Amino acid sequence: MQRHGKETMKYGAVLNRFLPGILENEEATKTTSQDDISQNVEEVQKIIGYDFNDRNLLRQAFTHTSYHKDCISYERLEYVGDSVLNFMITKEHFSKYPDLPPGLLSPLRAANVDTEKLARAAVKHSFHKYLQHGKPILTRRIQSFINVIPEYPLHSHGLIDAPKMLADVVESTIGAVFIDSNSSIDTTWEVAKILLEPIITPEMLETNPVKKLYETCQKHKLKVRVVDMWSHDGSFEVFVDDQMRGKGMCHVKKEIALNRAANKAYNEVIGMLSVGNINI
């Protein structure tokens, strides 16, 4: 027992010797962290071309719920930004395309505010580097998304998995600007335009792969059959006139697996029709 007491005193002495340095390093880490956050705010303001009156709004816009249990996350700002962005895009399209019917205005708006479009905007402006979160898997998902973007310069139209958190932070930033600018639509639109460039126009709009496949096959009286095996192995198979023309896989999202299968089948059908010199 006496020896145990001596060892305790010995380790206690060692701890007392190093404790001031440990505490000093902890304070330095906190200071560095605050300095980093302040620098991030400055950099993001330069990116979006807007100086905040309340910088806490911008910090909040880049804070995910997983950052730590007591954090104020971007969820409320995202809610505002989502509504404001949809309104601004609707207003812009209504003015810019006076002859475009609602049936074409709706998909045009969707293409400019969907998850992939906004996630691309986040990557283009390096928002992912400033995002505060506690999910290591998200970093890997973002990198996978960045790696595949060059294959689809403008939009994949449902063929790639875009991390929703990237889209969220664009919406929360727009929401933060809207709140900070005293609900100024004009000021918020100036920021949104910078983030969303290039804005998709009617000429740039493409049809969803599933719709393209069905429209083409219907035109040429080809029978389409889709086999759903997603719950089994994350895949879909598409048969055209009883021949398998496309298989797509995506374990994360069912819709993406279907789109990939339909896209492969569509390209096969187009190739087949071209070989037969059939007017597509």
From TrEMBL:
GO terms for biological process: siRNA processing. It comes from the Eukaryota. One of its GO terms (cellular component) is nucleus. Keywords: Endonuclease, Hydrolase, Magnesium, Metal-binding, Nuclease, RNA-binding. It holds the Pfam family Ribonuclease_3. SMART domains: RIBOc (SM00535). GO terms for molecular function: metal ion binding; ribonuclease III activity; RNA binding. The keyword RNA-binding applies. The keyword Metal-binding applies. Residues 41-182 form the RNase III domain. PROSITE patterns: RNASE_3_1, RNASE_3_2. Its cofactor is Mg(2+); Mn(2+). This is RNase III domain-containing protein. It comes from Solanum lycopersicum (Tomato). The gene is LOC101248023.
